[in-house]
TrEMBL record:
<feature type="domain" description="N-acetyltransferase">
    <location>
        <begin position="7"/>
        <end position="171"/>
    </location>
</feature>
<dbReference type="InterPro" id="IPR016181">
    <property type="entry name" value="Acyl_CoA_acyltransferase"/>
</dbReference>
<dbReference type="GO" id="GO:0016747">
    <property type="term" value="F:acyltransferase activity, transferring groups other than amino-acyl groups"/>
</dbReference>
<protein>
    <submittedName>
        <fullName>GNAT family N-acetyltransferase</fullName>
    </submittedName>
</protein>
<keyword id="KW-0808">Transferase</keyword>
<dbReference type="InterPro" id="IPR050832">
    <property type="entry name" value="Bact_Acetyltransf"/>
</dbReference>
<keyword id="KW-0012">Acyltransferase</keyword>
<dbReference type="InterPro" id="IPR000182">
    <property type="entry name" value="GNAT_dom"/>
</dbReference>
<dbReference type="Pfam" id="PF00583">
    <property type="entry name" value="Acetyltransf_1"/>
</dbReference>
Length: 178
């Protein structure tokens, strides 16, 4: 069993964009062999462009002793959040949750999701959403254990046109995330 570690969750500083990209790429690198070179390059490009976009999301990080150990983007409801999804998701959406391999299993992802749920609840949202795929079974298990439920209405196919990007949502009125 993993032991908890001390860290803080906060907004990312503008100067940390590069570090957040590196962290996210490191966190997702385990999926590279399953994605194939073309899809993987597209995924890397997407990670970079999402972190480099200005002004339309909260950039939330977990820091331990001056080092980033976790990061995510939290978007308010907006049209066109996902290129392949024509519908607007009516609640905030987590994207690109990544935890450094050395900090996994120690509550970092749960704390980042908890902060996202707090902000979504504070904005009046009934749900907090995210998308993932069955290529990421550990992530799916975590989300289900935290109370996320499937919302297939917002599923779509990834850039490879074979991977289903599955929508999940967390009901905020029953969530124990503060």
């Amino acid at each position: 069993m993993s032991t908890a570690i001390n860290f803080i969750v906060r907004d990312a500083y503008p100067s940390e964009c590069g570090k957040a990209i590196e962290l996210t790429l490191e966190a997702y690198r385990q999926y590279e062999p399953d994605f194939g070179p073309t899809f993987w390059e597209s995924y890397i490009s997407n990670i970079k462009s999402q972190w480099e976009r200005k002004g339309d999301s909260w950039r939330i990080v977990a820091e331990q002793e001056g080092e980033l150990i976790g990061a995510l983007l939290l978007y308010p409801p907006q049209e066109g959040l996902y290129e392949k999804l024509k519908e607007t998701i009516p609640y905030p959406e987590i994207r690109l949750l990544g935890v450094h391999s050395s900090a996994r299993g120690k509550g970092v992802a749960t704390a980042l999701i908890g902060e996202s749920a707090r902000r979504a609840r504070q904005s009046g949202a009934a749900y907090l959403g995210l998308h993932t795929s069955n290529r990421m079974p550990d992530a799916v298990r975590l989300y289900l254990s935290l109370g996320f439920e499937r919302e297939p209405r917002y599923d779509f196919f990834a850039a490879d046109n074979t991977t289903v990007v599955e929508a999940y949502r967390l009901p905020l009125h029953t969530a124990n995330h503060t």
